[in-house]
Write a structure and sequence with these properties.
Number of helices: 1
CATH topology: Tumour Suppressor Smad4
Structural class: alpha+beta
Oligomer: single chain
Helix content: 25-40%
Radius of gyration: 19 Å
Strand content: 25-35%
CATH class: Mainly Beta
Low-confidence stretches: none
Shape: globular
Number of strands: 9
Length: 112
């Protein structure tokens, strides 16, 4: 399953950075199979990994990430991504456990 996390200066992004060089909707992080891919959303000032402009690239925890000239603290970003992923997995398990009694009842009812 792929998850997306938005970065930009607007308050409705998952990560909002108030800096003039950061576009309203600057970039998106896609999490696929424990790999984080960053995609620039046609921002005005570009997205850079290790001082190189990127349209889409794999982001690693030790990389230097810049939205325009604003350096994003990648370590903190990855920590927050891990927290969000854990919350997502916990919610999925909670939803499954909530439905389990209903599934068991339906299974017993159908087996007669």
């Amino acid at each position: 399953m792929s998850r997306q996390i938005t970065l930009g200066s607007r308050a409705d992004n998952d990560f909002s950075y108030q800096n003039p060089s950061v576009s309203g909707y600057h970039a998106v992080l896609k999490i696929e199979n424990n790999v984080v891919i960053i995609e620039d959303l046609n921002s005005t000032n570009g997205t850079y990994i290790n001082d190189k402009p990127v349209k889409e690239a794999i982001l690693k925890a030790h990389d230097k990430l810049e939205l325009g000239v604003f350096e994003v603290p990648v370590g903190e970003l990855f920590k927050k991504i891990n927290e969000l992923e854990l919350q997502h997995k916990t919610t999925l398990v909670r939803n499954i456990m909530t439905c389990w009694p209903i599934l068991k009842f339906t299974e017993r009812k159908n087996s007669n």
